[in-house]
Specification:
It is a single chain. With about 260 residues, the protein is an alpha+beta fold. The chain has helices at about 75-80, 85-100, 110-125, 130-145, 175-180, 200-220, 230-245, 250-255; strands at about 1-15, 20-25, 30-35, 55-60, 70-75, 165, 175, 185-190. Strands 3-2-1-4-5 form a five-stranded antiparallel β-sheet. Helix 3 packs antiparallel against helix 4 (about 130-145) and helix 6 (about 200-220) runs antiparallel to helix 7 (about 230-245). The longest helix is centred in the last third of the chain and has 20 residues, at about 200-220.
């Protein structure tokens, strides 16, 4: 039993003296665990970095076995971000969410395509990372897991313009007019989640993070009595610092 598929490295851990246990998200085969012989060697160490895009080859005698994996590097995403803390936080959060939220061996081709697109944009503009694009990706993750939000029209008035909030109970958008006296009980909906051309600002990013984080926690992780991944919490901390400081990515990197 064997296959070859593009894959994103989500997590790795030592195994024995020189090998690795890896967890990857593949395009057609979903999340897979595998053993990498010699994965900790000097020759292979750089390849098996979390966030790297590889062409993976998996082999096992039976389909339900752990199997062995080899790979060829396609894009060393992690190495592009070493000097950019916020970009690294975004990549780490995405990998952790996939690793902990997705069931093994269930295909998620749309999610894989969206993540590779985000990683490509992240590699190109690491100094000013596409934060809004990342949170639009988190909404795709929610939809792939069966908890998609309805953000194309107001749940109260049915209008498509002026959407400003989301109901924490139903996950449906609400306009400013439709919110009325209930707006204090609703979650703010930043425009950067609705418009692919809207890059947002630190305040909007925080609103987006709170919105998607609320539904990820309630719908995905709380069901298994687990908190959001630590990497997602670290991303929130980085966004709070950015919002409080009002600095550009380059300014932040110069201080680090």
């Amino acid at each position: 039993m064997e296959w070859e598929d593009p894959a994103i490295i989500l997590r790795r851990s030592p195994h024995g003296e020189s090998s690795l246990l890896v967890r990857v998200l593949t395009r057609r085969h979903g999340v897979h665990h595998a053993l990498v012989k010699g994965g900790r060697s000097r020759r292979q160490a750089a390849l098996w970095q979390e966030g790297n895009l590889v062409m993976a080859q998996w082999k096992a005698r039976l389909p339900d076995q752990l199997g062995y994996m080899t790979a060829e590097l396609v894009r060393p995403t992690a190495s592009f971000l070493l000097d950019h803390p916020l970009a690294l936080s975004l990549l780490s959060s995405a990998c952790s969410l996939c690793s902990e939220a997705l069931a093994e061996r269930e295909p998620h081709e749309l999610l894989f395509a969206a993540l590779t697109h985000f990683m490509g944009a992240l590699s190109i503009s690491a100094a000013e990372p596409p934060v809004a694009l990342y949170f639009r990706w988190e909404l795709i993750l929610l939809r792939e897991l069966g908890y998609g939000l309805t953000l194309d029209h107001c749940a109260v008035t049915n209008v498509r313009d002026g959407l400003a909030y989301v109901s924490p109970r139903t996950g449906r958008a609400v306009s400013e007019e439709g919110a009325g006296e209930w707006k204090d009980r609703l979650l703010p909906l930043p425009s950067c989640l609705l418009d692919d051309d809207d890059e947002g600002d630190p305040a909007a990013w925080l609103s987006a993070a709170r919105l998607s984080g609320y539904f990820l926690q309630r719908a995905v992780f709380a069901a298994h009595h687990r908190p959001l991944p630590a990497a997602r919490d670290r991303l929130m901390t980085a966004l709070y610092r950015r919002a409080e400081g009002g600095t550009s990515g380059q300014d932040e990197e110069e201080r680090v």
